[in-house]
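Supplementary Note 3. Input sequence used for the single-chain structure prediction.
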Amino acid sequence: MNESERKKTALIAGAGGLLGRAMTSRLRSGWNTVALTHADLDITSREQVEAAMEKTRPDIVINCVATADVDRCEREPDWAYAVNESGPQGLGRCARLINAEIVHVSTDYVFDGEKEGFYTQADEPNPLSVYAKSKLAGERAAESENERAYIIRTSWIFGAGGKNFGSRVVELARAGAHLKGVTDQTSIPTYAPDLAARIEEIIRLGSHGLYHVTSAGVTSWYDFARLALDMSGLDHIEIEKVTRADLRQLAPRPRNSAMRCLLSERLGLAPLRHWKDALPEFLGEMKN
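The predicted structure, written as discrete structure tokens, is reproduced below.
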């Protein structure tokens, strides 16, 4: 069997999270997948990372470890940097030592949100929060340790089993929770299975670099939630319109962080579908 016929091995760190589960499902048929949850692999532990790499000898490492608690990062910066910078750095280094590639997933929050229109790779990051600063540091750490790196910035990931507002809004509405939807922060909701499919596509192309991968369609969390409830037959449920200032959150968020990918366009990758077109699939998963 030659190299092109060999089924490659992908080690997925953070396989218990929303994107990690979507990534594992996506790669299950065409790859040897090693799906490691936080209980299996703490990426902040050098010993655990080295042991996992030596045991599995992957061709590619996909870092889906995410710290979605932006405000906790503000309170606990040492923890934030351990997970978001030191972890990717160790994964990148260990991957390089066994001649493996690395995918590191980052965030739209690396931008300050003051730009009108779409952020591209040509725009200089200016992170506002500890979360965002640590995520940008993680991008640079992974890339500095491993030149065969794919850095994937994405935004507002939603999908069945997620913990954020977009993923849970229907569940919360059915449980009778009082819902608040932010109106003055915009970006692009990105459906986890679509993101996972594009990441696999990028890996197979083999063009290392910095990508912006999102669904299509800029919106606010309020408008996203309103449509999700309407499509679920919950149009009678009210959502209180609020601003970020109303919520008095500890960490600042970018006002507008919608992104566009120049590299994907150069490579001829078609845009992902609109988040509205992914909603029926997402809502169908919620029923199962």
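The chain is about 40% helix and 15% strand. The longest strand covers residues 101-107.
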